[in-house]
Amino acid sequence: MSDTPQVINTLRTKADRLNGIIGKLEADLAQARADLSHVNATIRLFEAPESGEGFPTHMNLDRLFKRREIAQLCAEALQTGPMNTRELALHVIRAKGFDEGDRHLRTAIAYRIVQALRQQEKRRGAIQRVEKVGNVVVWSLPIAVGVPIGGHVTSDEV
After folding, report:
1. Minimal CA–CA distance to 149: which of 94, 80, 84, 87?
2. Can you count the helices (H) and strands (E) in the chain?
């Protein structure tokens, strides 16, 4: 009967050691899969595309929008009330007629919206952050009399 606890202790020690080895191998396997994915992507970049198949499209968002167009589209959308960045991105995509299902485009435009609206907030105060919910900022127009949306106050407007 005194041998049973020693056997159990030895087996538990062995099981713990094997669990550790399996965990390390699983981490190594995940890293190997990530490395393989990167190598395959690099191969696709260097191989010539097959007939009827093109390279993935990468677009420069600078050429899709006129100067201050994102801020103007957002200001128009915010006239109905406060909206979060994702809602504004969807509004901008619809206004420009882009593909609403393209999540990469939505993310890229959302980043541009945050940049544009933060600049508006700093420079003119034409748009302000209300709150941050999770990782999404809620934006609104300030309640100020005589301040045009997206523009400067002139002496005629005061």
Report:
1. 80
2. 4, 3
For the beta carbon of residue 137, count every other beta carbon within 10 angstroms: 20
Task: Give the distance from CA 44 to its chain's centroid.
Answer: 25
pTM over 0.85: no
pLDDT digits (tens, 9 = 90+) for 37-60: 888 878 877 776 666 555 556 667
Helix (H) or strand (E) holding 100: none
Q: Are 77 and 83 in contact (CB under 8 A)?
A: yes
Residues with Cβ within 8 Å of 132's Cβ and at least 6 positions away in sequence, in order, are 138
Closest CA to 82 of 151, 153, 133, 116: 133
